[in-house]
């Protein structure tokens, strides 16, 4: 399989194959921990995916066979956030969470090793998770002086239930891929050497489905949990679909032609 580079970055690889984008966190020396620049690059890559018509699915993974992502890079954890080369402390992985959530295309986490701390949250936020047999999952916040009470807690609880979510966060234990699958936060476990193949196969299957149907399902599943914000995304797409209809075009045409619109011609479905 020949992955073609979409854009060169420092901390990530951003590649394309058959309509499937792959974002790989490429900092294996720190178990793919992220620093502010890593998140900025992933955010930009997600924005490119959003704009490109030829991309339907994203795979998110980590370089090597040790880690998917070990969370925030502890070497640059400063006062008020993780400090980038510009000296500014940031928690900008939260902006990446929002991008993943709002992207009208599925994001599949391919967890190839440790998904720990902020790295665990990252897979939680993705639409689907496929894990290799060697993957290990867990939170560390209360052990290392952090917590993610946002999607990392509330959305996790939707996957595994409130009791398990509290156990994961309060005890900071690690869980095997099999345990994570049993808990309902992993869709499938495969051998490490088949992880990418499985991800590409899922991606290709999704690419054969109706993009609008997939989009509206993601919006609807989000909207139930995301309140007014989720409703806004759902409603935005309803407007987009309305604009595809003759009925919406009639309103615009009548305005431009300085006449009353003839909406009577359109059906009132039961
Ligand atoms: O909670 C948040 C946020 C909350 C709200 C808003 C934004 C947030 C943003 C981020 C986060 C967080 O991510 S907090 C949690 C930060 N991460 C961690 O606490 C995980 C730290 N790492 C570990 O617990 C372990 O390394 C491990 C369970 C993943 C693996 O253990 P293992 O197999 O014993 O390997 P280890 O020797 O510990 O690590 C391998 C190498 O990777 C080490 O480097 P070396 O000594 O070989 O040079 C280790 O230092 C490095 N490494 C691992 N994780 C990190 C790391 N270096 C920097 N940062 C890391 N997170």
UniProtKB/TrEMBL annotation:
The biological pathway it contributes to is: Quinol/quinone metabolism; 1,4-dihydroxy-2-naphthoate biosynthesis; 1,4-dihydroxy-2-naphthoate from chorismate: step 6/7; Quinol/quinone metabolism; menaquinone biosynthesis
Entry's CDD domains? crotonase-like
Domain of life, source organism: Bacteria
What cofactor does its activity depend on? hydrogencarbonate
The entry lists its GO molecular-function terms as: 1,4-dihydroxy-2-naphthoyl-CoA synthase activity
Pfam families for the chain: ECH_1
Any one cellular component term from GO for this entry?
cytosol
Q: Which residues bind substrate?
A: 70-74, 82, 114-118, 140, 146, 243, 258
What reaction gets catalysed by this protein? 2-succinylbenzoyl-CoA + H(+) = 1,4-dihydroxy-2-naphthoyl-CoA + H2O
The site (Important for catalysis) lies at 82, 243
Write out the transmembrane intervals.
Answer: none
Q: What is this protein called?
A: 1,4-dihydroxy-2-naphthoyl-CoA synthase
Could you tell me which InterPro entries the record lists for this protein? ClpP/crotonase-like_dom_sf (IPR029045), DHNA-CoA_synthase_MenB (IPR010198), Enoyl-CoA_hyd/isom_CS (IPR018376), Enoyl-CoA_hydra/iso (IPR001753), Enoyl-CoA_hydra_C (IPR014748)
The entry assigns this protein to a family as follows: Belongs to the enoyl-CoA hydratase/isomerase family. MenB subfamily.
Task: Give the protein's biological function.
Answer: Converts o-succinylbenzoyl-CoA (OSB-CoA) to 1,4-dihydroxy-2-naphthoyl-CoA (DHNA-CoA).
Q: Which PROSITE patterns match?
A: ENOYL_COA_HYDRATASE
EC annotation? 4.1.3.36
Q: Which gene encodes it?
A: menB
Q: Where does hydrogencarbonate bind?
A: 139-141
Top enzyme category = lyase
**Entry keyword set:** Lyase, Menaquinone biosynthesis
Provide a GO biological process annotation. Answer: menaquinone biosynthetic process
Give the lineage: Bacteria, Pseudomonadati, Bacteroidota, Cytophagia, Cytophagales
């Amino acid at each position: 399989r020949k992955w073609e580079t979409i854009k060169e970055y420092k901390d990530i690889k951003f590649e394309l194959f058959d309509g499937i984008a792959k974002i790989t966190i490429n900092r294996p020396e720190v178990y793919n921990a992220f620093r502010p620049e890593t998140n900025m690059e992933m955010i930009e890559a997600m924005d490119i995916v959003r704009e490109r018509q030829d991309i339907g699915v994203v795979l998110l993974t980590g370089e090597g066979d040790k880690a998917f992502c070990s969370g925030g890079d502890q070497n640059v954890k400063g006062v008020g956030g993780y400090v980038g080369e510009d000296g500014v402390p940031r928690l900008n992985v939260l902006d990446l969470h929002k991008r993943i959530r709002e992207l009208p295309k599925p994001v599949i986490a391919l967890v190839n090793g440790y998904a720990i701390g902020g790295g665990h949250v990252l897979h939680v936020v993705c639409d689907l998770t496929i894990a290799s047999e060697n993957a290990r999952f867990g939170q560390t916040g209360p052990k290392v002086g952090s917590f993610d009470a946002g999607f990392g807690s509330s959305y996790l609880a939707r996957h595994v239930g409130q009791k398990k979510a509290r156990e994961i966060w309060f005890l900071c234990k690690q869980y095997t891929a099999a345990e994570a699958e049993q808990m309902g936060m992993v869709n499938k476990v495969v051998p490490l050497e088949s992880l990418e193949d499985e991800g590409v196969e899922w991606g290709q299957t999704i690419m054969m489905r109706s993009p609008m149907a997939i989009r509206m399902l993601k919006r609807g599943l989000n909207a139930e949990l995301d309140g007014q914000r989720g409703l806004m995304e759902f409603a935005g797409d309803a407007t987009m679909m309305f604009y595809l209809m003759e009925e919406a075009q009639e309103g615009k045409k009548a305005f431009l032609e300085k006449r009353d619109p003839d909406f009577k011609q359109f059906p009132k479905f039961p």
